[in-house]
Amino acid sequence: MNANIDPRWWQIASLAGLLTYGIVILRFDVTPWRVAAIAGAALATQWICSRAARIAFEWKSAMISALSLSLLMRSNALLPILIAALVAVSSKFLILWNGKHVFNPTNFAIVFMMLASDRVWISPGQWGSAAFFGFLIACAGGFVVFRSMRSDVTLAFLFFWSAILFARAIHLGDPLTIPLHRLENGALLIFSFFMISDPKTTPNSRFGRILFAAMVAGGAWYVQFRLFHTNAFLWSLAVCSLFVPLIDAISKARRFEWNQKEVLVMQRIAAALFVLFITPNVFGFCGFYVAKGDAKLFNKASQVVLVRDDDRTVMTMANDFKGDPREFAVVVPVPTVLEKGQIRVADKAVIDHLDAYSAPRLVEYFDPDPCMVYDMQQRKSVAAESITVAGRVGRDRTLGVTIEARYTVGEYDILILSAKESAGLETWLTENGYRLPAGAREVLGSYIRQNLKFFVAKVNLREQVRMGFNYLRPIQIAYESPKFMLPIRLGTVNAAGPQELFVYALTRKGRVETTNYRTVRLPSDMEIPIYVRSNFSSFYKAMFSEQIRREEMSVVFLEYAWDMNWCDPCAAEPLSREELRKAGVFWLKQENAGGPLDVFITRLHVRYDREHFPDDLVFQETGDRQNFQARYVLRHVFTGKIACGATEYEQSVQKRQEQEAVNLAQLTGWNVDEIRKKMNIQSVRLKKWWEW
Length: 692
Prior knowledge:
Blueprint: H1 7-24, H2 32-53, H3 59-72, E1 73-75, H4 78-94, E2 96-97, E3 100-101, H5 105-116, E4 120-122, H6 131-147, H7 151-172, H8 177-183, H9 186-194, H10 206-225, H11 232-240, H12 244-254, H13 260-278, E5 288-289, E6 301-309, E7 312-319, E8 329-334, E9 343-345, H14 348-358, E10 361-366, E11 380-383, H15 393-399, E12 401-409, E13 412-419, H16 422-431, H17 440-449, E14 453-459, H18 461-467, E15 475-480, E16 485-486, E17 499-507, E18 512-514, E19 518-521, E20 526-527, H19 536-550, E21 555-563, H20 577-583, E22 600-608, E23 617-621, E24 628-629, E25 631-636, H21 647-668, H22 672-679
Parallel strand pairs: 6-17, 10-25, 19-21, 20-25
Antiparallel strand pairs: 1-4, 2-3, 5-8, 6-7, 7-15, 8-14, 9-15, 10-11, 12-13, 13-14, 16-23, 17-22, 18-23, 21-22, 21-24
Helix pairs in contact: 1-3, 1-6, 2-3, 2-4, 3-4, 4-5, 5-11, 6-9, 7-8, 7-10, 7-13, 10-11, 10-12, 15-16, 16-17, 21-22
């Protein structure tokens, strides 16, 4: 291979290939014309700045910035992305030190735009965690880093970040599946191979680059695990880049340099670790249910309402528990000791309304008379069926368990516990009449080391009888924490197989997505046979199971995203202002009763187990306000008398019904021949050219 080939050619080819993969395979919300517009803005800025600086126009650098922005940055509007392209390219000319860029251009533009506007965002979970894709990026990136002579900073960063994750897991007592899952992340590899390795922004000496990699990894740890902000790598790189001139000055003065043998050993160790984490590994709900005696309780399907604004969260938890209320208790890790006023019993009807409003649905259209020249349609929406202590003080101290607070709220007795170690908490719960499932100790220990408290609720039978309820109402808690997550790991401890979780996120800015798993839109707007109308529930369950199978049970599905002020079509009316307040939307004011609701709803649906979802769900609110709903179209054939003998219409109906059968088979995995029988149609066979 010609050693004189500009390494930027490899970088452009690699980034273009990754972008194509993302658009075609992962279904990114990026269109070719948007990529072209970003590239045009970057190239135009490069040309103008080159003319002003009286230097040769270099298009490859601008194209790299354009492709990187297309890969990483998202916005509903094109203008913020175009501004980002302008900022990225112009920063190379305006922010310099000793002839070098101070910031990686793409990194600087992304951070600048995230600080300047709440309508741009980065989706770190968009790449998923497929090991083969990590290997793809590694191979593509390898060309770039080795040809640009910056393989040391990439491998060093991967080494330090891997060490941090594994050390943290060991400290918390977490299984190694958690750090492995976090390392099998396409966003991490893109950052490592295409951003931190920029030769014009990294230190000049090898020692300096190793130090720089350690600083970026350490900064990312602080941002992600102490400040609990998303996109930790980008923030850390932006800050650490300011220290590159100082690192270069120290390295030059002290003449720090590593010899070839030391470099080779370091690179082999980092490369071995990298190969380890891209190799496929074979290794709920917000809490787990524990039962007295031998009662077997399974948390099979749960609903959680998350109301989020800044660091304030209101979480409402509903469950499908069926059994003797005396056998019910729930343990949920919480970030702080809750006061009594922060705990409420919620109205199940509000959650039912949220479910009906956001549920996948059918939409029916009726063909007009094909002989008429006008188009008259009737529409009707059919909503989907919803899937839908105390103890002795002395002994408590011995076990390292403290009862921080004790309340009775509605029909629940509430305890807020803190513990020093998991064995003591497990013993305390056992001695107080609760039998924990096997494996609970390790998960409890992890949360204890993260300084979380434990919210324990059980039914107060006397209060339940007095209040007249014969079912368990949802529990609602309010707290303030930078953590925006659901600790689902406890939900897998005593689960009999995979569980269903529905999350209804109510925010002010826009759609909510997971940052550590891919968030994928459920297939929508496909025409399916009319007979599905009579049993939509079976269709929906089969369709969801088929999508889970195709995605290898590794993604979170988006089923609905909409401004709460309206819907089209509506399976149920939007929630009233009073209902939203009951759901926990604390920013709605009584005095603005006639104004807009200022609420955006996101409905997420995930089927999870311990193998496929080793880590808790971490969320972020994006600036995405594009409306989306999972809906499926039923199109009725015109049944009146066709006076004009519309043969073309009849042929189009036959082809359409065949396509409906194929669509249904693809969505659900059902046998297409069986579907045709239920539709009472035969497979459409197009005539050969000689069969005129």
